[in-house]
Amino acid sequence: MRPSFVLLTSLFGLISAVTESYNGQYADNCPSLCAHAGPNPANWTNIHHVRNLESCDQTVLFGLNIHNSVADPNTILTIRACVASHGQTYEAAASPDVPQQPSQHNLVVAQSCGAKVVKTAFTPQAGPSTLSEASSAAPQSTHVAEATRQLSLFVDKSAECGTTILFAKHKSAVVGLYSGAQITKHAVRGFLDSFAENAALTVGVVSAGFADLAAAQDAIKDWNNGLCLDETIPATPVSMDVLVSTVDNSFNAPPNTTTISHGNMTARGKPRALLPRGECRTEEVHGGDSCASLASRCGISGNDLSKYNPQKNLCSTLKPKQHVCCNAGTLPDFRPRPQPDGTCNTYKVSDNDNCSDVADAHYLTQQDIEDFNKNTWGWAGCAHLQSGQLICLSEGTPSMPSPVQGATCGPQVPGTEKPSNGTALADLNPCPLNACCDAWGFCGTTVDFCTKSPADTGAPGTAKPGTNGCISNCGMEIVNNGKAPDQLKTIGYFEAFDQSRMCLRMSVKEIPANKYSHIHFAFATVTSSFDVDISDVEYEFSKFVKMSGFKKILTFGGWAFSTEANTFQRFRDATKKEHRETFVNNLVSFMSRKNLDGFDFDWEYPGAPDIPDITPRSPEEGDNYLAFLQLLRSKLPSEKSLSLAVPASYWYLKQYPVKDIAKYVDYFIYMTYDLHGQWDVDNKSSMPGCQAGNCLRSHINKTETHDAMVMITKAGVEARQLVIGITSYARSFRMNDASCSGPFCTFAGDKRHSMAYAGPCTTTGGYISNAELNDIIKNPGNYSIVKSYIDKDSDSNILMYGNPGAVDWAAYMDGDLKTNRINWIKGLNFGDSLDSGCVHLFALEILYSQLLDSLSLFQTNSEGYDDKFGWYEKWTKEQIQPRIDSFMKLGDGKGLKYFDCYWAYTDGKETKDSCLGMPHIWDVNAGWSIRYDLVDKKGFFDALAAEAGIDESWVAFGETSDYTCADPGDPRPGTGGLPCRKLFHKKLNYPQKGSDDKIHVGNPKKLIEASIGNVTALRTSLLSSYLSVGLSFYDDGPNDTSATDAVVAYSMPILQLTEAINSMKDIKEIGEDAKEQAKKDLIFKIITIVFMVIPFVGEALGPLIGSAASVARIALLIGEAGNGALTVADIMEDPSSAPFAVLGLIAGVGGGSGRLSKAEALAEASRARGLMKGSDLAKFPQRFRDQDALVQKVVKSLCARS
């Protein structure tokens, strides 16, 4: 009889609770909260690999079978854990409904012990023996104290009796507890509290590093077996409550008869051997029993219990359903019997169980247990008993396995009932998409989930040590690809833009019909009344529907429409039962009217719970989507096409019932790219073998693309229905060590911030186009390191570039690899590929069409424009005097400080004062005069120009005069009104607007006329580039002209010209009698023309209209000094700025490109545009900025179609 107790510490880290990832389910960084899970470990989070016990930074309680060594690589582990929180109550959660017989619960024991409490004294001893070889650093004492405190809180709330084995981890420390069945939990709490208070003194004695966890585990195992550690040394005696029989005090030995070694508390007294005398009277052991409680129920003393049951370590090896003798004699045959329904006699494994002890307690041999469990779920043999596992202790059918919180597939999903129809346990609760289910009940699509690795026993639901195994839908082979597609599809996406964005209208007539079998026109949207909305793309769409030579497909949705606050609900509502019929009828009618060949839907994503900034989606959305497609298919003519864009992520795809959807659609656009990116940081499950999620991995990895193809074909979609996405851009990363090579090299930055260089076109760190990479290879520029190679493992091109200490790594596909990838896809009978490459030809066509349209609009807008300009000139001059008067306002005008004032009442003597300090004579009922003497001429005119935009040449000095009527006082009765007695107010030498012939306001129309020659040169240059790009459209080689450079370079001058001519159009509706705000609008439109056309005019600007700065001042005349659109004057005043440089390089304005080849000029122009900062672009008018952003979107979205 050895009541024993020990504390020990160890470095440790812990995670788990389930999270969903791109490829499946993994343990989260920390387990579930103990407060939610309750005190029963059956409800805690299960962890199966020590490598997962590393990153939880909170206090964790956990238990494991102490006989399964964490140091043995051949051990199969089940660690049950939860996160302890401050002030935790540990209220019990509902226990799983498990069809099993009574069994022991280590951490939750019976409240009624059937024994009484007595106080006794023990002398704890601690020795270094087993832990003296610790190789890790000792944990911090404060960490030990906190772990102990949480362990103490838990123990204090647990039952008063029963064996307890438990660990608590806090940061660098783990505290392990073994409390024998006869130690009261109140006593354990007191000892733990004392340990916490003195942790600094005891760390050196009982601490161990993480690497020595196995030694700590061995110590717990020894104490469980009633053994002591060697090399003990005396410690301070402690008083502690223990449980004894209610019959006598035979367990309460005097203090001087007790010895303790290394934290063990052991009462002296050795049982005497007895001879059997026939069968004895017995008591059955229940969960939480101790020798004291058993002796009480027997009605005998503790000594008598030891005498009648002389086996070794009886009190430390008690097991539920074991029997003890209450008198002399031998035990009857208590071997377990099968249950009446044929189910075996079940037993739940505890943290201190091994087969030997369980067999001894149930009158069996270890071989009996092995034989009984050959078909038991999860049975990996006696060497691998798992905490909480249900095993058979008799012949019979194994019971359902214990439920596991967090399991989502297989028979251990909570609430799963035993099948009655012959269904195999492994086939219960299959994963969505027919994904693989591993032995622990998690779904996934990679080799970690899909590889069978049964334990040597061959029992179901098992995995070999260090693996996860697979129980259903196993395998990593592409299926459903026996039939080739009837025809190969070459699909192009045409992204149309809002008609109001004039600069980005594209002539869809120029799409090369012989290069595509299908053109998807993106995007139409859905109205709130569930009709088709093409209002934003109507101009382009009207031309698209008249074309032929390819299938005309209208695509609905896209990321923005699916996720923005004002539209995300549309797809959700349109596919609901109550709106579905209306939506479908509207679609069918629209297709018929427009003679379209098909519809494509890009809803991102039905059922997804985590799209930022919108309400989570409901799980019914996937089924609603299916029902909608089914209804639409039934009402569309059979020759019309129906397709769907779907993600290659298990997390998002699992909401789609793709197997059923495949019956109603012709093909899927499968988005198999962006497999890795900066967003992977801190996601330990994003890439195999890289816990930090920051390893350099290719976003177009061929193996992972293959896995995605496996996932969807296993889900029931035929390969020939899938169009696989490929890319012409790279994901780039800043290398932590440029000398590193291989898949475990790491990159810098967090999940939201890439440290990689931004490309001049894409302007986004972490994302860079093939064209930009090719430019780096050909012209390294400032980069001293440029190295390219092919990574055969991922089938990707790799480019390393930068300077020492700042080198980027980018993975991409060049032309050769892309061709190989496409042929591979075709060889697997997939429906071909969707090249997400740069459709630069389309972008140049947009710009060229816009240039032609702008020239045409100039002719139209010129008609009647001169009359409008006359009003503009008149209104501009009318603003001058009011602005001067405001500047010279009596009393506090900003211009008064530059004058001395000589003031006098009518017929009075003049008095000199500061104009700001003189008496307020204008408030007196009298006539007066003020003579202004300008004492700081430069200061006055500088301030007047800055504040009011008025040039010195526009000002003359002279006299002004007005009058008011004197106050007549109270009128006399019958006299009527008195005549006005005029009180004259004069201002002498007062600043005034000069004569109109002195004020010059240039006509912007003359600027455009003067620029026509340079615009023609721009047109010629653009047409040449358009043809060049068209001839080399599919070539990604580094020696070819960068089409991206062309798009970026031409966009700026064309957008400037467009802005100027559109401003002419905008003012034509403004009449001579317009209201004040309309006048201001007109003035701004005309000023915009000036600024946007300046680079085309060059040196002719001065004679035509004056400097840009003087034009900008006009805004001040109408009280809009802070208007941001006019700050572009800062750029236009500088002939070396980007707008001048770009135009000079590509059109020869100012002789800028004569020394360069066309390719070099385009590259230089693109680079000049790329050097413009966001603060520079912010100075341009809003419409220009919007259109420029759309050009960048063309480059980016057509280079990275997703």
TrEMBL record:
Residues 1-21 form the signal peptide. Pfam families: Chitin_bind_1 (PF00187), Glyco_hydro_18 (PF00704), LysM (PF01476). Keywords: Carbohydrate metabolism, Chitin degradation, Chitin-binding, Disulfide bond, Glycosidase, Hydrolase, Polysaccharide degradation, Signal, Virulence. Residues 406-476 form the Chitin-binding type-1 domain. InterPro entries: Chitin-bd_1, Chitinase_II/V-like_cat, Chitinase_insertion_sf, Endochitinase-like_sf, GH, Glyco_hydro18_cat, Glyco_hydro_18_chit_AS, LysM. It catalyses: Random endo-hydrolysis of N-acetyl-beta-D-glucosaminide (1->4)-beta-linkages in chitin and chitodextrins. Residues 281-326, 345-393 form the LysM domain. GO terms for biological process: chitin catabolic process; polysaccharide catabolic process. Its EC number is 3.2.1.14. CDD domains: ChtBD1, GH18_zymocin_alpha, LysM. Belongs to the glycosyl hydrolase 18 family. Chitinase class V subfamily. This is chitinase. The lineage of its organism: Eukaryota, Fungi, Dikarya, Ascomycota, Pezizomycotina.
